[in-house]
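[Meeting: bench + compute handoff]

Bench side (C.D.) handed over the final construct sequence. Compute side (W.E.) agreed to return the predicted structure before the next meeting so the bench team could plan truncations. Sequence as handed over:
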Amino acid sequence: MQWAKVVAVITGIVLLLSTTSLSETFAQVKLTPAAKMPVTLSLEMGGCNNDLTCGAEFLVGDTVNFSGVLTAEDGTPIPNAEIRIVQFLPKPELVTIASGVTGIDGEYDLSWMAQLPPKEEATTDVTEKILKDNVVFFAQFDGDDTYSSARTAKLTAIVQANQIFTSVNAEKRVYGPGESALLFIGFIDTNDEFVDPDSIRVLYDDQELKVEQKKTGSYTVITPTLTVDHHQLLVIPKKEGYNAENGFLTVQVSGFFGKA
């Protein structure tokens, strides 16, 4: 009888250890993540002039279009996957400039308004003009529970500041003493399109005058009474992201024999 009890205890211990070992093994199998499926991600950018790095050229404010497709290794499209367009900054820093999800066919279409990378330090030279800069992009898929992450090759582009050209004309070539001059001011950008500055200062012999807008990029100003043989007009436009050219005009007055 004693031996029967001993055998029963030993059998119970063996079964307990076997059950524990199997449970641990099963838990380990469950905790081991499944291998993620590799994917292929492509990127195209509008305006490219070569097949290697793109080399597109844009003005500040232009819309830049990005497109591509995300597929599994066997070519199956992957829908509803988030794609990010990432830009390298000089700091160095990576910044997401556009994002969206793929469609049912695995394709995505994103856009970004071109702008120059921010300067690391503010300049104290008010005469310094912003010119252009090289920018670098790539598309990124961060992966999910099923698919691994992917990144495209880098594409480059040149972003350059737009330009405002200022024209100033008088209603007449020469005015008489005591008259007021009607002056026309126009602003045209690099694409020969009329554009409105963010701000306009008009200095008439160091006196600031108010302008009246007639239509986009077109303004008029009326001077005070002309009192000397000539008067100087300076037009100072400003617009963010643009190099703005000042405008000048000398208003001629004939038959004036007095003193200022």
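W.E. noted at the follow-up: The CA atoms of residues 95 and 115 lie 13 Å apart. C.D. will use this when planning the next construct.
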